[in-house]
Amino acid sequence: MTIEKSQSEIKQIFADFRDPDDKWKYLLKIAKEHKGMEPSLKQDKFIVKGCAAKMFLVPEYKDGILFFYMDTEGGESTPLLSRGLGALALKIYNRQKPADILTAKPEFFQEIGLQIGLTPTRANGFASLLKQIYMYAKVYSLIEN
């Protein structure tokens, strides 16, 4: 699925929310559904710097596609909101070509109103996660050329 298609589907999900708390319920739901990663991948070199919660983001580049594995220190149990934000980002950027990630607009998350209601710490952590995704995409795009 393309980034644009993923964003369109997520935009529709958020547009259907009737109550402002529905977005948080959705993030908690996808946090619980997120598969996570093997504990052996949870290495310090993969910690997303700037997150209040300990979050790991591991890239894998295979056949021109960038795969991401993300999890939080507590896995399925905690911190669920941070894990949900990470899972949402992966719904868009996972299994994409690095060049496609680099042309995607991160403003999408503001368009769906995600920044409204996030604590400054969570907003900074989410921005750090997105920055890390784009950094990996930049590095792997150089490998492609």
Protein traits:
single chain, about 140 residues, mainly alpha, two-stranded antiparallel ribbon
Q: What do these coordinates show?
A:
This protein is mostly helical and 145 residues long. It is 51% helix and 11% strand. It has helices at 3-15, 22-33, 80-93, 98-103, 108-111, 120-144, and strands spanning 55-62, 65-72. A two-stranded antiparallel sheet has the order 1-2. Strand 1 and strand 2 (65-72) form a beta hairpin. Helix 2 (22-33) packs across helix 3 (80-93) and helix 3 packs parallel to helix 6 (120-144). The radius of gyration is 15 Å and the shape is globular. The mean pLDDT is 91.
Give the SSE map.
Elements: H1 3-15, H2 22-33, E1 55-62, E2 65-72, H3 80-93, H4 98-103, H5 108-111, H6 120-144
Antiparallel strand pairs: 1-2
Helix pairs in contact: 2-3, 3-6
Q: What summary fits the major beta sheet?
A: 2 strands, antiparallel
Strand content: 5-15%
Any low-confidence stretches, pLDDT <50, length ≥5? Answer: none
SSE-based structural type: mainly alpha
Note the total helix count: 6
Helicity, in percent?
Answer: 40-55%
As laid out across the biggest beta sheet, the strand order is: 1-2
What is the string of helix and strand elements?
Answer: HHEEHHHH
Distance separating the two termini: 23 Å
Concise structural overview:
This protein has helices spanning about 5-15, 20-35, 80-95, 100-105, 110, 120-145, and strands at about 55-60, 65-70. By secondary structure, the protein is mainly α.
